Amino acid sequence: MFARTIFSRNRPKIVSLSNDARFKLSNSAPINEDCDHKPRRIFSGIQPTGSVHLGNYVGAILPWKKLQDSGEDVILEIADLHSITLPQDPKNLSQSILEMTASILACGINAEKVILFQQSSVFTHAELSWILGCTCTIARLSHLPAFKEKSSTLKDVPVGLFLYPVLQAADILAYKATHVPVGEDQWQHIQLTQDLAKMFNKRYGKCFPIPHTMITDNVYSRLKSLRDPNKKMSKSDPDPRSRISLLDKPDEIQKKFKKAVTDFTSEVYFDPERRPGVSNLISIHSIVSNKDIMEICRESKGLNTAQYKSLVADAVIEYLKPIQTDYHRLLSEEAYILEILQNGADRAKEISCRTMQEVKDKIGFSYSSKNTSFVTSRI
Length: 379
Ligand code: TYM
Prior knowledge:
Mean pLDDT: 88
Strand content: 5-15%
Number of domains: 2
Bound molecules: ligand 1
Distance between the termini: 60 Å
CATH architecture of the largest domain: 3-Layer(aba) Sandwich
Largest sheet: 4 strands, mixed
CATH class of the largest domain: Alpha Beta
């Protein structure tokens, strides 16, 4: 509540999507446009590279869990096709897929309540991505901030990095998802998805609902780097001290908070515009203590920032303990994780193949799609 009064920039309409979570809707897709989004389907994903940090946790995994627990139809993917837009060591990548799955499960995602799968094991994503790419312009993609930012650091820019948002749109549309819970950094990618859905519907006839962006309506939608509070906490930051991984050991967590960049005022109060560093620490503290920001500020009166950093570190260590225990237990059960992913992929294929059939029919591929099923049935 407090956070909402602090932010002054124009915020899109807020709707309550469950009792304990509040999300905002993207204003580029008004609620009643194109379809009334009933029944709702939630789709989201995470790249398997690097370990989950607190930003991923509060911006994505925690909202996923809230949606799962309120009985929503939730589909989640480990976005491994996305992660090869930049070179990956194959051995590390397959281990990272297992580790990311174990992390998500350890955070409370329940594979019996949601569909959890590995993106590359469902071929429809790549297929639909090609089709959507044919409705999208180079100009539209080259204006996306994430592309501009990433490509500016590279001498040779892979085509995959450029096409990445189209693949993300295909992920979402292949399931006719109506809602996409993400952190604020993914905002423009979901807007592109909305545009591509509209474009497809206009050209070929109505097929896709226009998906809404769900972004947690508070400061957690963009946790900041501990080293530079003007940047988001990110897996790709070369300095590991910039983020708290869910798997960090207690002494690492203490050290990282000790080194967290704040400012020259020693008092603890919340002002994200003028004091982004301390405010980021307060946001983190609020998540792990389940207290609101006002309460934290009241309780922290009299502490200087050094003492406060140590207090936040202790609270984070305590909070992460059960997640870490579960993670290590799950990771030792590789067969169980693979079974979850296999089962998830089977269910995901069933849904997305139905969408692909409809897409192909609309485009005029009907002969080839009928022909394909004929061939398959004879094999
Ligand atoms: P990825 O793997 O970079 O991040 C996963 C999720 O974590 C959120 N996030 C944050 N939230 C708050 N504060 C932060 N500092 C922070 N850093 C990351 C991200 O917004 C994201 O929700 N392209 C996506 C993965 C993807 C996807 C999809 C998402 C692939 N297909 C379809 C939704 C729908 C990505 O790279 O997320």
